[in-house]
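INFO worker-7 received task bundle
INFO bundle size: 2
INFO processing item 0
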Amino acid sequence: MSTWNTLPRAAFDLETTGRNSRAARIVTASVTLVDAAGQVVEEHEWLADPGIEIPTEASDIHGVSTEVARRDGAPAAQVVQEITDVLRALFEDDVPVIAYNASYDFTVLAAEAARYGIAQLSRFPVLDPFIMNKQVDRYRKGKRTLSALCEEYGVGLDNAHTSAADALATLRVLDAMAGKFPKLQMPATQLHQLQVDWALSQAADFQTYLRKTKPAAVIEGDWPVLPPQDPTRGDF
């Protein structure tokens, strides 16, 4: 039985205009493909003009200003189509796609696809070191950011918060986690389904914790894509 970490695999990362995954627009994106041995064989990078102003707090993180995006970026609809096409081809070839906190990146992409009338991705599997780390190392202390896990597993992260660097680092972190936690070594489709269940359970546990002080707190557990925003909520 072949496990995901002994086969070709890819990593996906976005840098965007904000934290709200349903409202954020794509600024940069990267997809990196490695072979079975983990050697990079293909890289895709995009710079988009998101069509809106990039808030200073976002550009301070990823380094892309509104001016740069408008001058050098491709139209957002074109970028979203190309990203979707690359990911769809990977999934059709049974290549798993690794993304850190995948529900953010894939929800942004889904919202952008809906915005421009682009067909949604319908095939997976996705592998998410964030969800897995909370499951297999649940008593770990400290932050669970990508930077923190890179430091823990000795993975280099130069140019943090650029999509290309974050994508490759995410892949390297998950490879290292699979070495430390052999229970993660299984077919990607099986691991994908486990993460669906883990994400729901983790969200429910966090919601229970929050409701001790905030009775109305809601933590969504859908993974790897959050459903479209409920238009009746009025907070988008």
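INFO item 0 finished
INFO processing item 1
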Amino acid sequence: MKKGLRKGVGKFAQFCLLAVLITVPLAVSCSSKKPETKVFNIKFSHVTAVDTPKGKAAEFFKQELERISGGRVKVSVYPNSQLYKDNDAVSALLMNSVQIICPSTAKLTTIVPEFQVVDLPYLFPSGDDMHAAFDGRLGSMLSDLLEKKGYKLLSFWDGGYKQLGNNSRPIRKPSDAKGLKFRIMSSKVLEAQFLHINANPQIMPFSEVYTALEQGVIDGQENTWFNIYTQKFNEVQKYITETDHGYLGYVLLTSRKFWDSLPPDLQKSVADAVKEATDYERKIALEIDLRDKKRILNAGKTEITTLSPEEKKIWIETFRSMYSRYPQWNNLIKAATAHQNPS
């Protein structure tokens, strides 16, 4: 009896040992399996060439965010209107068809009319004045207005100062532009700007400007040196006047819905990458603009008119007389100019 019991106990012990040997590896295997990490994909759409401040900064942002997030965020950049023109991109953002865009400030005026204040000629005398305004009270005011429309403002990027190109004649004073057709972005202020000097503004997508100049549909356009060069506008523009009359700025945007879908740590990663990309973009914007001005000069196809200080003063006085038309934006104008030294 005792012998049989010992034999039974022995078999039971062997069974238990075998069960342990089988179960332990399974438990170890299950506990060592890492949970799958969700990867967030971002489509970044913009309309300019890769070799522009915006184009370079977009690529910089992609690399920086993918590095900071440890691969949890993947960014695909689509330059040159490959996905959308700016106006379409603004709508596509809210539908989550694209997650980040960087339109010019003028493209947002139909959503937030107050953005038109940025288009006022000679509003920012220098880059430092401009950055102080956008990183301060003016930027906060515009950001709050965008939030109400479902957008999340990430940053302001530099485009630079605009020059005036045309195919008819050299322009030295505002009255020289009378009767000429100039392409503009969709903005009531830009429209008023050209009407103010008796020219004819024509709203047109950026991607159509080269052909329109080549075919004589328009006489001229306003843009930065680097946009003129990278889009080859100088090849179809006989004259450019260095007016520095308007600021071309970009707004880095996502949707409120997409932003809220990101966990807090990835929101911080995006914010950190945006800051680094903004510092980088602002640094290279002026460098690239001056570089491409030299390229246009060296190409020798375009006559460039440089204004004297006295001539420049006439342009400033002519255009600043427009400000009185917009009393509803007095607070925005004050916020834009609060950091400027009185002169």
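INFO item 1 finished
INFO post-check item 1: Residues 3 and 9 are 10 Å apart (CA to CA).
INFO post-check item 1: The first helix runs from residue 2 to 32.
INFO worker-7 idle
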